[in-house]
Structure formats: structure tokens, C-alpha cells
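Structure request: Prepilin-type N-terminal cleavage/methylation domain-containing protein, Pirellulimonas nuda.
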Amino acid sequence: MTGPQSHSAHFLPSAARRLPARRARSLRGITLVEMLAAMAITLVMMAAAVTVFANISSSVSRRRATMEMNTQLRHVRGVLQRDLAGATCPAIPWQRPESNHGYLEIIEGPRTDFDPSIWLRDTNNDGLPDGPGGLSLDLAVSQIPSSTALVLPGSEYLYATPTSVTSAQGVTDGRGLGDWDDTLMLTVRNETEPFVGRVPQLSNVTDTFPNWGFRTVESPLAEVVWYALENPVEPVGAQSNYFFGEGFRTVYRRALLILPSIDLGLVVGTTRVGPGVARVLGDGVDKNEVDQAIASLVAFQSIYDLSVRLEWDPQLGADGRWKLVANTLADLTKRENRYEHHGYYDDSTGQGRRFPFAALSIGSGYTNGGGVSFVQDPEFAAPAPAATGSVVVNNGAIVAYGVTARGSYAVRPFARPTTPSSFPATARVVLLEIGNGRGEVAYITHGMAPLAGDRRGQDVMLTDAAAFDLRAFDPGAPLYQQNVASLVVQPSDASWVAAYQADVNLDNAVGSIAANNGWSYVGQGAYVDLGYGFDRLNIAGNTTARQLAFPGLAASLTGAEPKFFEARAIRNVNTGADIAPGYSVYDTWSRHYENNGIDEDGDAMFDESTNGFDDRDPRGGGNLSLVDNNADLPINGVDDPSERETAPPYETPLRGVQVSIRAYERDSRQLREVSVRQAFVPK
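Returned structure:
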């Protein structure tokens, strides 16, 4: 057929076979090479995206960690600033208790920024730290931060021997740590934000002390204590993980309410004890059992936040009782009434308390072979088992404590060295909870002890701290510049000792240093560690050995102000001996020591500076009035200052104080320091 129908049938199959080339190509499949290439590109893009998100997440985490650290530091700085600004006592020594000013006390420990930790000491010169008792920080795994600070000449003072612990054997050199063993104690008034704390509450006046309850009260006045403790290195076989981060420090603050009018309604026999008495000890604690009385005081202030003192009242009970009495500001002017100023001694004359009632001391007159005894509040069940402690003695001073048996205690005990000494060392227990309301002795320290048990952490202000450093302003402190590095050093810097010695050894006069010896004198005035004129690396030596060769320390540049804070320690005015060795102290002091009827200086005379007689100067060779015929020889006039029985370590006003706190954030590995300065110059 040749018609239209047959033509159309012939055309359709032919058209179907002639598809466009573009459409034919679009039906072709993806090759394996193309698929792999596409997958590779996709994976690269995903990896880039993951990297971007990971960086963002890490950045956010670091920023969050930094913000948290900054928030903590701001809080600590704010509280510390308020405490210093609210100090009730003018920073001027010789305060009178009747003035009702309270006190200000700054205690400088032996550690410094260039000798920050006993755990970093390298005594065998092998370049590795070898702390006491075979324990040391493992620099290969420690998270303690390093320091990139330039080490100037004089760096031999960085450690106990002329060596340098480096990071060649580990991931850190530990030099991010700083001075941490200083203590700030003062009375504070805060009317806008009163202090809050626990005080006793009795459901029945017959309840024994362990069964007392508590209530929370406020007070505008408090005795405030700031201090830090270093996390110890624990033996491998006794790892408890209780102290997280060996070598780091924790900053603490105790606020003990000043409430002299508190009335608990206590009754002894049928006699109601008046207001102000916070506790009456049992009849079983006799007058001569001072250690048990102090243990009761320690237990009370471990449970309650009340500033109290220890007194013997012969009118209570059948033959007298010990009691704890709430302090006033006037009471706290006296050292013996302040927190942890026990002044306990045990010698041939018997147990008791004695001036200067040191809060911190390494003591003197000790021998090896002694130990530490632990006395618990007698109203608590006896410890089972009891703890035992040991001491490390160097030149008659206790430089370290050990724990040979940890014991088990319901409340923090009072610790004391067992060897009698006229100038006792302080010892305090840091408890480690073991459950059931009991605690083991984690370690013993010269310093303060934190709250434990159900109160653990209530006094913590900052963890992962690297430094807690108190300094006083000394207008006469010389400053030097290292000519090569062009850095100015002050007494708290490691190289300052070398600069000062180069200065005074040149011509025995301060300020005449020549440029060719590497240093230049550039001025004076700085915040300094108390006692900066002494070698702090030999804390247990005698005064002569400790003092550096500073021939011009007592003098200064012509027309310049004298250096105030290069001396150290509380001393006997008669003999010049340190009676609270190992620590420098600034104390506003109390004038009552000159008229309290007690022979503080041990010269067999009482209150010479207020007795109305012209006594011989005891510092001019002894009180000769007892042994010769010149008793009435006029010396400086009647009741002159040389006749005083006591003297503050620094008999000068304090112009200002600086507190520096250094913190480390482990996640972001950031180290940050903040400082608080408070001027005490009267306006």
C-alpha cells in the first residue's frame, strides 16, 4: 500500500530510533571513578565542616571555662576587697583593748614565688624534684602550669641548691606556682551585707555537746581569716583522690561571728550561766589539763562560726570550770583570744599557755625522735584507732610532719608536738572523711586547717589556685634594673637579692651601684613580702645565719624613707631571740601586755614600762638591778619605751597591703592573676 496510512506506519519506528544525542547521553550511568571522586569530595567537605564545628565547640568551651574562672576570681576579689575595706582596726601598732578596735594581723610564710613548694625542691642536684619522705611531684604527668618568665641573674635562689628543675624530664617545670602560705587575719565590720554563720542551739540545757544543734544567725562584725593550703603529694599505696590535683592550692575563708551578747541559757548545777558564755566544759577537765580545754575549743570552732576565747572560771561548779566566752572587739585586740592563737607549751614547769600565742611557728629547741600527739574533745567518744604523727627537725625547728597512723576522729583534734619546748611549734590536723561521721588524719600542717565532715567545702573560696600572696607596702624598698633585660626587680623577685648584694658590696652604701656590674639602682618603694631582708630558704637556722649580708639595711638614701619590713618574727625584747620562729608577722599588737601582771620577757620583773620606776634597759645587757648596786641608775627616764616587756615585730604603721591570687583553669590551660590593694593611710 502506498497511501497515507502505510506511510505513517513506516515513519514512527524510524523516529523512535532517531532520539536526540543529548537525551541519549542523559541516560548514561555514573562510573565507579566518578562515584569515588564524589564521595572523596563529600568526605573532605564533611571533614572541613566537622573541623569548623569542633573549633567552634572548643572555642566555646574555652571561653566558657575562662568566663567561669573570671567569675570565680571576681567573686573572691570582691569578698576580699570588702573584708579589707571593712577592717575595724587602724593599721597602727600598740592598740588599747579599751578602744574596742579589734586587730589586724598578717603572717608571712617561708614560701616565696621563687621557692614556691617543698614538693619542687631539688636537694640532690639531679634536675628532678625530690620532696620530703621520698614523695615528689611527677612532672611527666602533672597539670601544674609552667612559667615562661625570664630568669635573671640570681636564679640560684629559685631552689634550695644552685640548680634548676627544668621541664626536660616532664611536661611542666612547675614554675607557674607561687607564694601561697601567707595568712590574713582581721576583724571586719559590714553593715550592708552582714556575716552569716552557725551558732549553737540547744533543745535541752542538759544535752551534751555532741548532741547540740545549730541555727543560722547574722552579725555585722566578724573575725575573718584568709589562708591557703597546698594539696599534698600522697604515697602511692595510700591514694585517696581526696585532694584533687597534687601541688595545687585551695583558698579558704573563715568568718567567725562576733556576738558577745549571745545567750544559750546554759546551766551548771543549779546556776544559770549568764549571756556571752558559749560552752562550759565538763568537770572532768581540770585547770591543768590545758590541752583538753584547747581540744574542746578546736572542736567548737570546727562546728560553729562563733569567735570565742578560753577562760578558767573558779566560781563555776565545785572547784572551777573551763568555759568558752564570746569575744568582743576589745577581747580580740589581745592575741591570746584570737582564732587558733593557742600558745600551748609543755615543759618542765607543766602544761599551759604562753606569750606570744603564735598562730604559726616552726618552734625551736626540738630534737629528732619526737612525735605528735592528738587530743580530742573529751565529750566525744575516744578515737578508735588513734592517730600517731612524726616530725622532721632541722636546727631545733620542726620543718615537716608525718603521719604514721591516720586514726579515726569524730571532730578535728588538737595536735601538739610531744617534745617539750619553751617556744612551741604549731601543728594542725587536716581531716580526711571516711564515712559514718568519722575522719582520718590526712596530713599535719603548721598552717590553718579547713572545715571537715558535713561542713567540708563551706569555707572554700577558690580551688585550683596557684598562689595566694600577701605583701605590705614598704616605701624604702630599693628597686633595681637589669641592664641587659631592662627589667626592674623588687624585693619579692628572685634576682633582687643578687642586685642588692652587688649594690651594697660595691661601696657599702645603698644607691651607688655602678652600671658595669649589670644592675642599676632606679628608686625605692614596693609591695614586699614581710621579712624580705632574710634568707627564706634557711627558715630553721638561727638569726645570724638567716640574715643576708646587707650592711646598709638600717639606712637608706639621703632624704629617703627607711625600709620598714626587712626584719622578721616576734622576738623577746630581753634576749633578741625569735619566740615564734619561721614566720614574719605584722600585728597591731596590744598595750595590755605592759600592765597585765605577767612577766612576758622572762626577766623576773613585771610590767617595767608601767611600774613608775626607772628600770635598767633589759636590752642593754640584762636587768642588772637584780644583781648589782646600780639599781637606781637613771636610764632614759621613768617607764620609757626600752622598759617594755613586749614589742610588735614591726613598730610602724602599715600604709597598704596587696593580696594577689593566681588561678589555673585546667581545661583551657589558662593562668590568671588578680590583685587587691587596700590603703590604710588615715584620711
